[in-house]
Amino acid sequence: MKRILFPTDFSEAANHAFIYALEIAKAFQLPLTVLHVYQLPDVSSVHLPNTLREVYDSIELEEFENFKNQIPLLHQLAEKHGLKDVPIESMMEEGPTVETIIRAAKKTEAELIIMGTKGATGLKSLFFGSNTAEVMENAPCPVLGVPEKAKFDGKIDDIAVAVDLNRDETRALEYTLEFAKPFAARLHCLNVNTAGSEELQAKMEALQKQYQDSELLCHFEILEGEHIYAPLSHYVEENHIDLLVMLTHRRSFLESLFDYSKTKKMIYQAKMPILSIPENF
Fold first, then answer.
1. Are 85 and 115 in contact (CB under 8 A)?
2. How far is 4 from 150, CA to CA, in rounded Å?
3. Within the chain, which residue ranges are assigned CATH 3.40.50.620?
4. Mean model confidence pLDDT for the chain
5. Could you tell me the pTM of the whole model?
6. CA separation (Å) from 201 to 20, 128, 179?
7. Of 141, 102, 161, nearest to 280 (Cα)?
8. CA proximity to 159, closest of 236, 212, 253, 247
9. Which residues contact 15 (CB under 8 A, 6 or more apart)?
10. If one looks up domain 4-147 in CATH, what number appears?
11. Which CATH superfamily is domain 158-278 in?
12. Once rounded to an integer, what is the mean pLDDT over residues 60-80?
């Protein structure tokens, strides 16, 4: 990886995710680019009197002043957590939030985007309607979504990756292995058999054989269940998973994975970060 991009609105949730971003940048010895996106009123088709134009300009100036004041606070936060040696750059861009983040990722050649998410609905808010979800769907690189209540002690001991054995997800597994190496994390490769297919076991065994010589400890398991969410959430809770990885195929897959109408108990709500890897990455 070359660089990590960290979009922020300077909220408490974003500052919480900033610690994750710093720790991961430190682990990979990468620079961290802090991005603040702001919007101005759309007046492209309106002739503004001078007084209104001054108001328009003052909004942009206020955004700049806020940005200028917040960046030193982030440096203080880094120092407070013993992470002041992580190289931090900053940029401020105007435009629609999601499109601007994606444009900035391409511009800076970022190979990982780390974003915070908040809300009482936890992971549901992460995947439905949030900026983080839209960035995950459209980003040119992997995106790490960090729920507001997620706790990070600088260690990632166990990583679970949800695989579809009917697809070639080699790239996702290879990326996950590289991501896990600096932390010497154990890798849990999981598939949920919702159709009762007997063919999946053979496919999982073939996948296990492919990675049997990995320098990391890898565990391969097929979970049984009517729907994906319940057995997967139970597994990550029982095995103290620190990070869940998935390959983003399409929104319908994410919707089926986090189908709240079928699962009443939110076992790991708002506790665990999600690393989403684009299908064509």
1. no
2. 19
3. 4-147, 158-278
4. 81
5. 0.83
6. 35, 32, 26
7. 141
8. 236
9. 8, 74, 77, 116
10. 3.40.50.620
11. HUPs (3.40.50.620)
12. 82
